[in-house]
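Self-study notes.
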Amino acid sequence: MSWTRTMRLLALALMTLAFLGVAAPAQAGDVSAEETATECALVKPTDDDTISILGRICDRRERPPIAVPDVTVTVEDSEGNEIGEATSAADGTFVVDLPGAAIEHLGKSYTVILDESTLPEGTKPEITSRTININIDNDQTVIFPVGDAGPSAPGKFTEALQLAVGGLVFSVLLAMAALGLSMIFGTTGLTNFAHGELITFGALAAFFIDRLPGQIEVGGADITVILGVLSAFVLGGVFGWLNDTALWRPLRRRGTGLVAMMIVSIGLSLFLRNVYQYFAGAQQRNYSQYGAVEPWEIGDILLTPKELIVIVLGLAVLVAATSLLQFTRLGKATRAVADNPGLAASTGINVERVINIVWIGGAALAGLAGALLGVTQGFDFQVGFRILLLVFAAVVLGGLGTIWGAILGAFVIGLFTELSTLYIDPEFKFVGALVLLIVILLIRPQGLLGRAQRIG
């Protein structure tokens, strides 16, 4: 009896050991599988003179989303020619460098295509291709979420909404720059071709603040770039004051004609552009923060937090500036000087003081626009020069010298420029905006909000 009991105990012990021997490796295998599932990472921006397409492939059915490695991605131009290929790394990221100089790709569109056959078994992408438009020589980011099956490509409506997001961001920045130019033109009559360099000055001022040794922290949060943007606004105003005090006021006192002053502004533009290139170099620049920010996915539409902040901040600045011009004594004096400087002076208004303040405010708006443009898209020493024609188009379209006209013109130009790529080649989108300007001016020569004037 005791022998039988002993044998039963021995058999039970052997069964227990056998179970543990089988279960332990299985558990270890489970842990290993969990360890190999890498969380989807943000793509690090490149720091070179080329434009790169940065992307990541994430399985968002998991929380947090996990990376999908070893997936082949190709990039094609608008004619269907393959110009680059990459394979997603262990963290789900990939980088495709566009060949050639960055300026060669401006205004062009490229399609990033996901090879479904290289996806892990049992997975399917929500979207297999994304088309991106190169608006400025900065790296572009795309995301391919893997999850439930969806449409192979976004519809026109979805694509239009995505383009409208980018158009709205660009319109706000364009409106700030255009408002500054319109204010200066309204009070002085000067067509300032160096206004683009005021925009670039803001981007560079924020950049050099960002590159100071160490970090500027408040409550443990790094606010270096935020302080840089605010400094660009202040320093831009100081730079505008210096422009007027050292150059434009002496020319006005000597009675220099507006055509001669316009030619001087062209020379100033060339001079400042070369100075910027000497100190900042010719390569593409990005700020230390917000270079690769994870976007919010609203369906197939991507919206980054920095884009939302730029829209809200830009609209707030525009409301504050227009309210200042509309309802304060300074604003009334500015409008009086713009209407008739001689009559304004006879009523006791210090015309030179008003013009100097307008230069400070207009340059500050341009500097803030340049800094925020650098936050959203990066910049180089010619960023202001590239959008100068669009700034002029916005001012002329809205009505020369009008406050609200410059803002309205900027939004029309900015949104039309982006949305027009639904039907025309992105290389011609700026041309389309200028054609729109010509058509409207043929119908309404004074601009959308300008006042018709009788000549002769």
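Second protein, same conventions, sequence then structure:
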Amino acid sequence: MAKELIQKSVEELAPLLKDGSLSPVELTNAVLDHAEETQDTINAYMTIYREEAEQSAREAEKEIKNGNYRGMYHGIPMALKDNLYFKGKVTTMSSKIHKDFIPEDDATVVSKLRDAGVIFTGKLSMHEYAWGITNNNPHYGAVRNPWNTDMIPGGSSGGSGAAVSVGSSVASLGTDTAGSIRIPSSICGIVGLKPTHGRVSKYGCYPLAWSLDHIGPMTKTIKDAAGMMDIISGYDEKDPTSVNTPVDQYLEKIKGDVKGLVIGVNEEYFFNEVDNEVDQVVRGNIKALTDQGARVEVVKIPTLKYAEWAELVTSLSEASTIHHEDMLKRPQDFGDDIRMLFELGELPSAVDYLQAQQVRRQLKQEFEEVFQKVDVLIAPTLPVVASKIGEDTVELNGNKVDLIDNIIRFTGPGNLTGLPALSVPGGFKGDLPVGVQIIGPAFSEALLLNVGYAIEQTNPMKNMKPPLLSKA
């Protein structure tokens, strides 16, 4: 029974918890046991909160029995990325420098999940300071991909992606500055949503790059993500980038009807230099949507050719500003890979940074114009699948290409524009998952989730599970 429980989604577990046929204590113990069993293999967790989780589960059980059911996530055990603050709990950013840092407040998203009755099982590993896409951490070890443990899980939210994929957390949150929710979601075969910038409060999240950072759900299913968005969305005066605009009822709006939907396809950028099998998977999913009544329109977004440069200059400059003092005082305490990036971030001039913001402004305008004609854009989340742990290159149609440059090519524009972007599992290349990315206008998360649900309902993953779960 325990092995069956860890494979279930929130949408499957919630009714069982609500009607009392499943105890939060039984579910939490199943998840904790599995987290401990898989930790040596996957290394997803930084810390497991066994005692506190068991106590929270007992409290949730009492509340539900007494008729005080709080909603879909009440009694659901989950762990969060280790750059989200828990009051009184060590929050390391998977770094050496902050290994003993204890926040004085909960992050807003943590408070909201706590109020919704979530049971926190621990903190999850990440690429150090969220500044990387492999989660090969020099201080705490590499997180491994549950589909193939020789491969990266993606990053920087690699612990979140791996934990949800392998069942050691029922759901999670990630943060995304150039793709750090969508990259591991694509690589680990789960759902990952980067909301519109300002939709979800970033208060209590250690920043990577202020103007590019986002927080969003990483889940097993679309409805799980929608249910989490119902909890974490909304204005927060503690976050100066938070936008005060009405919040959708995300879960209620998921019907899966895409009849009349206009899908934009941008060939020059989003389908340029893509692995042939990845390309086939994504186009196959677009066809599945057109079979359901959607139609395709080819669109042009000329400024996308400068997007990688603008994203890099912006993220390098902002991240290096945040870590400037530590780079002066204790550079040796950073991992080699991110120390080099922080050094590079000292090089762009004010002119470079401001030119990048002009590119950004133009890109936003072009996306706005495109969304006058189409409802969503669909593209590969990544042009490639997972690479081997420790390798700096990845195979693209028989050629070895730079891993970082290629893996953020299609995700970075969503951060530059601040537009919402969803990665939904679309199938496989061999035994490795492929993600389909759906991008929409500002605050169109409900639309993206609905399109993602239409894809999910075609069962593109054919009910396949990672090997560790298949053996369970």
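Instructor comment on the second fold: The CA atoms of residues 229 and 250 lie 7 Å apart.
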